[in-house]
Design goal:
By secondary structure, the chain is of the alpha/beta class. The protein has helices at about 5-15, 30-45, 70-80, 100-105, 110-120, 140-145, 160-165, 170-180, 195-215, 220-235, 240-250, 260-270, 300-305, 315-325, 375-385, 415-420; strands at about 20-25, 55-60, 90-95, 125-130, 150-155, 240, 275-280, 285-295, 330-345, 345-360, 365-370, 395-400, 405, 415. The protein has two domains: about 5-155, 3-Layer(aba) Sandwich (Rossmann fold); about 160-429, no CATH class. Strand 10 (about 345-360) and strand 11 (about 365-370) form a beta hairpin.
Length: about 425
């Protein structure tokens, strides 16, 4: 099944031959390899680039295991570059396989892979593309280790607007599948619900959990698995390492300290399993360090961790909206609006929540996610925080279903979920 991933192809094309290492990051199985080795490869061939000038090395393939040694990898690539007058394109897939555990753990040990990549950059006739499933050793290092010559392109699982046409279903049935099984591209190739669920469960156990524990030398695999399930069950809820620690203790799970939990949460973020949305005080214009919200990068993996037994469409919808905003390139925080109200004759402070404070350059939007607005009471509840924001940036409530877009008397735009998901310009309606 061919899925164009046009947004990402356009980014690769626009970044070609710019003198930088293109670092393509994202969770395992989200389509990084397909984008590079199929879609972009075919684009280069169509542009007249000879096949011999495209040097592709998939390091997660056992046939290429020898090249996980940076010295051998360097020799192989240099041996393929035989004409200094021709342009060569180097693809290195899952580059973290060429980084040893010792290099990962000890900051005083130079990472040989980075030396290899910097060496390739010195060749004017070589354009380098690298994929990786861990931000700590790739995306967060590109500006320092590559001396400002790194260029990150982050890939997400399929957005709903990509998933819908590929599914061959109407938007309502496609949405139902998407909220259960998520947007990892291979899901579309699985023939039935049982196969989809089994695929996601295998990925969780055999790839994500195993990879994270091996990469970070975690011996308490059960503790990490329990944490991943706890985060999965709490999407859309405020949490922090102390709260997680207390939850573990109350359930009789001891031996996982708060610093260890903080590290585990960091590892999940670095592996792109989850994303953290920090709280932002809108009136005070400052960040609140804790607690925060965590969202799963793929909702299908989240559901599989919980054996598909905790399907709350309100929280799942909120998670998908968050992922869509990230996919569109926005910076997304959780908003807090502090108000004073009178209780028992006294003025007390209360905090109202705005689901998302969305920024991109000079643009800002305040967004609430509401599965339904059945009556005035629910409408008042959802718009209460938005009304208390004094600035003139656009305020939006995204509602499940297929209602028409309209603006109420308070100047708040009410938008259907499908209008939001199917049009990338929907926030500017």
């Amino acid at each position: 099944m061919y899925i164009s991933r046009q947004r990402y192809l356009d980014r690769l094309i626009s970044h070609m031959n710019n003198g930088l290492i293109k670092v393509i990051t994202g969770i395992r199985r989200c389509g990084k390899s397909y984008l590079l080795f199929e879609i972009f490869y075919n684009y280069l061939i169509e542009q007249g680039i000879p096949e011999d000038n495209i040097i592709a090395v998939p390091l997660d393939d056992e046939d290429y295991a020898d090249y996980r040694d940076p010295k051998k990898l360097n020799e192989y690539i240099k041996g393929r570059i035989v004409d200094n007058k021709q342009k060569y394109y180097v693809f290195i897939d899952e580059a973290q396989y060429a980084i040893t555990k010792e290099e990962m753990k000890n900051p005083d040990i130079p990472i040989r892979l980075y030396g290899l990549l910097n060496g390739l950059l010195r060749k004017e006739n070589v354009d380098v593309y690298v994929t990786g499933s861990n931000s700590k050793f790739l995306s967060s290092d590109v500006m320092t280790e590559f001396r400002g010559r790194g260029d990150e392109i982050h890939i997400a699982p399929l957005s709903f607007s990509e998933y819908l046409p590929a599914s061959g279903k109407d938007k309502f049935d496609a949405w139902q599948d998407y909220t259960y099984y998520g947007g990892l591209p291979h899901i579309l190739a699985e023939p039935d619900d049982q196969s989809k669920a089994s695929y996601l469960e295998r990925l969780n156990n055999e790839i994500y959990l195993r990879d994270i524990c091996e990469r970070y030398d975690i011996h308490d695999e059960n503790g990490m698995e329990e944490l991943m399930k706890l985060v999965a069950s709490a999407i859309g809820s405020l949490t922090n390492p102390q709260k997680v620690s207390d939850t573990f203790a109350s359930s009789g799970r001891k031996g996982i300290s708060m610093p260890t939990i903080a590290n585990y949460l960091k590892y999940l973020q670095e592996s792109f399993m989850i994303q953290k949305a920090e709280r932002y005080d809108i009136k005070g214009r400052k960040y609140i360090s804790t607690p925060a919200k965590y969202y799963y990068t793929d909702i299908g993996l989240r559901n599989a961790f919980l054996n598909f037994r905790q399907y709350e469409e309100t929280h799942i919808m909120e998670n998908i909206i968050y992922n869509e905003l990230i996919y569109r390139g926005y910076n997304v925080d959780v908003g807090v609006v502090e108000i004073r109200v009178e209780e028992d004759g006294k003025k007390v402070r209360k905090q109202l929540e705005v689901d998302f404070v969305v920024n991109q350059g000079s643009k800002r939007y305040y967004i609430q996610s509401a599965f339904a607005l059945p009556d005035k009471e629910k409408m008042d509840q959802e718009q209460a925080s938005l009304i208390k924001i004094a600035d003139s940036f656009k305020k939006i409530i995204i509602v499940g279903g297929n209602a028409k877009i309209w603006r109420n008397e308070q100047g708040i735009t009410i938008m259907s979920l499908f209008d939001f998901l199917q049009n990338e310009d929907s926030l500017d309606y």
